[in-house]
Amino acid sequence: MPETQLLTRDSRIYVAGHRGLVGAAIVRRLEETGCRNLLLRTRAELDLRDQAVVSRFFAEHQPQFVFLAAAKVGGILANATQPAEFLYENLAIQTNVIHSAWKHGTQKLLFLGSSCIYPKLAPQPIKDEYLLTGRLLGIWDVVDPIFWTETPSEAPCAPTSLGFPAEQPTSADRSTEADRVS
Question: Which of 81, 114, 140, 155 has its CA 20 to 30 A from that of 106?
Answer without folding.
Answer: 114
